[in-house]
Design a protein that fits this description.
It contains 8 helices and no strands. The chain is an all-alpha fold and 201 residues long. It has one domain: MFS general substrate transporter like domains (Growth Hormone, Chain: A), CATH 1.20.1250.
Length: 201
């Protein structure tokens, strides 16, 4: 199927648009953390090396989370797994905000966020393939990834703007929670069992 026609059909598929919206939120989360976690550590009054350790913990648990999700997508509905990941992020951020800001709390938070960091990718790719088949999967996932990158830009940029204006990241954390809850909810209406096959007429 020609690329233009594949894109046109994809953009008319509500489940694809919902998936893209969820991946936008993923980009917001991961870029904010990757860019501003050292700043968060400093704002909490913790030693600078804790920021480096926290980023390392995110990377380590990202590997674990991605491998675990690759195993899980063959056993449970992918949209449900995505909702669970985003809901877990919302809970993790809320608990972090309420907890005392110690080194142990920060590293546990980093581990939990690491588990969810890029574990969204396997089910997101899987859903694109399930919706449209593999013929145009790379291109159509690329569009979903564009949404992720736009979210990433906003997460990194907004974090800096909020910190300059307020001296802390609280507003971004609350936005983070709201977006995570929204992402968990938008995956629920996705029609995973009714793919739209992009075949030539």
């Amino acid at each position: 199927l020609p690329a233009r026609e594949a894109i046109r059909r994809a953009l008319r598929t509500p489940s694809y648009l919902l998936l893209s919206a969820g991946f936008f939120v993923c980009g917001f989360h991961v870029a904010f953390l990757a860019t501003h976690l050292p700043g968060v550590v400093a704002a909490c009054g913790l030693p600078a090396p804790v920021g480096a350790w926290a980023l390392g913990v995110i990377g380590l648990f990202n590997i674990i989370g991605s491998l675990a999700m690759g195993w899980a997508v063959g056993r449970w509905r992918m949209k449900s797994l995505l909702s669970l990941v985003y809901a877990a992020r919302a809970v993790a951020v809320l608990v972090f905000l309420l907890a005392p800001k110690t080194e142990a709390v920060l590293l546990v938070f980093a581990a939990v966020m690491g588990l969810t960091f890029l574990s969204t990718v396997p089910p997101t790719v899987g859903l694109v393939a399930k919706f449209f088949g593999t013929g145009n999967m790379a291109m159509l996932f690329g569009l979903v990834m564009l949404s992720h990158q736009v979210g990433g830009f906003l997460g990194a940029w907004l974090g800096g703007q909020v910190f300059e204006a307020t001296g802390n990241y609280d507003v971004v954390w609350y936005i983070d929670i709201v977006l995570a809850v929204a992402a968990a909810l938008v995956h629920l209406p996705i029609k995973e069992s009714a793919p739209v096959r992009l075949q030539p007429a």
